[in-house]
Request: fold
Amino acid sequence: MTPRTVRLTMAQALVRFLTRQRTSRDGREQPLFGGMFGIFGHGNVAGIGQALQEHRDDMRYYLPRNEQAMVHTAAAYAKMHNRLRTLACTSSIGPGATNMISGAAAATINRVPVLLLPGDIFAGRRPAPVLQQLESSGSQDVSVNDCFKPVSRYWDRIARPEQIITSLPEAMRVLTSPSESGAVTIALPQDVQAEAFDYPAALFDTRVWTIPRARADRERLTEAAALIRASRRPLIIAGGGAIYSEASAALRAFVDQTGIPVSETQAGKGALPEPHPLVAGGVGATGTLAANRLAHDADLVIVVGSRLSDFTTASKTAFQHEQVRFISINVSELDAGKHAALPLVGDARAVLEDLRELVAGHHVGDEYAATVARLAAAWRAEVDRVCSERSTDGTPRTSSLTQAAVIALLQDVLTANDTIVCAAGSLPGDLHKLWRATDPKAYHLEYGYSCMGYEIAGGIGVKMAAPERGVYVLIGDGSYLMMAQEIATAVQERIPITVVVFDNQGFASIGGLSGSVGSGGFGTRYRYRSATTGELDGDLLSVDFAANAASMGACACRVETLDALRSQLAAAKRESGPTVIVVPVDRESRVGSYESWWDVPVAAVSTMADVQRARTEFETARRKERDFL
Ligand SMILES: Cc1ncc(C[n+]2csc(CCOP(=O)(O)OP(=O)(O)O)c2C)c(N)n1
Ligand SMILES: [Mg+2]
Reply:
């Protein structure tokens, strides 16, 4: 008997296939794709574009304003869904495709699934070179889409329509794999998209991808339990994996039983929601004094779902105990093996449950418990102090409001059912220290790639994934200027997010960093070029962000006081579309760093005295960096 077939174009078959994919974890099943974003050009309009039109009832199409942004939206959507759902993204060939590369890198670095479908040059080649085609004198099998290879976890190019029969299942496997997840790129030559093929009907059967909860090796678990029992100063680092695996209850049970304190990475904040007496807050370069002191003296660090970036480890200076050991719970072997950890390869929730049984009856000593309680209480008091501080003494103010005070007000107004979204600038560091996440989904930071421009696009993805939540995008003026156009998309889709723009006239974060490497803020402020000096040190440039947002259809305003901010935040709740609130904040009022450090190399030779001084300090600080072998 010959198998039943369906005659479709490759693009139609691809879209139909995507509508049939589902995921399931803990018995809860849902569609893998929540829709497809795309910007059409000659590389996809007649292929995927036409297929989407035919499938518009079961695959909703969304029109964003920029291809990079749509990938951020997809990644934020996936992250909010704990990687169980995502969005697909279609682009034309050439610039539309390469615009997605930053988004792909961000998704892959954050281990978040996104499906990217860039158009590609003709597989048939006859009309070559086509508009926007990259030519190579050494090969005809090269296009700009090859640039996606290093930033994708799966990459393919479809030269014949039947290739999707084997490619798509592999692409889905990678997208839904807890350990391999990231950007999946399938480049679609524009001619092949429109070619017909008799596809096996079975390709379009509903397919459920079951997300496993892998359990760790039994012997290693026993070894880990022995390390925990022997440890006098253990510390947990909760990373994004703890949230993706929905391990909060397991983590709480584990620490309630053992008394082990929990510090957090940017992706892991809220894994153990506040208020819990064992939350020590952010750890590492942007960490709290409590977490950083605990890390400094820890003899055992239990890492739960973190890739241990340099921000988390303070460039490998955070852990100074002579005999410090690491246990790393992670679905990915790559991450689990870092810092010569005892690797517990498996799902965070499952492994924590197993580990808890193995350390039954064990609790940290009274003295350590008292130290943890004292440090946590002192940190809470420090947060209150920083948030009520007016502005840095002595330095001229650009605003009477400090960033910390605005954060404190937001903290006061927002509830456990709200989510803040942020990615780059000085906000992530301040939030990592100051924010109290009262729910595992309250704090959405893209800090794997820290990609300026993620914020508003990401906020849209978060709101699409969790329409029941209030979504608050916190964004610097620099990031806003890089990618604000998705406000128009939010207006179009009537997505009611609130965007708070922190206007400090340039790059406060990199300005501060520039100061610390001896360069005095060179190139980090928005100023006119001065006719006298020829440099960018003329008058301050001001941008009317509220007018800009209003021009796209958002409800927008600028506030000068905390009271006005409070009432505008309340008003935003009544809007059916996006609201943008611009808040001027003082550039020089910074939240300090708490006994932490970040390795940013300083010029080894320079005629500038400040640079020479910074280099000397750098060389001293770097000596604290450790190898964990
Ligand atoms: C796409 C991108 N380009 C450059 C950087 C480097 N960078 C990190 S923070 C920053 C400045 C951000 O300025 P703003 O959004 O105003 O935040 P602020 O530092 O003032 O808080 C820059 C340029 C980046 N992270 N992402
Ligand atoms: Mg700024």
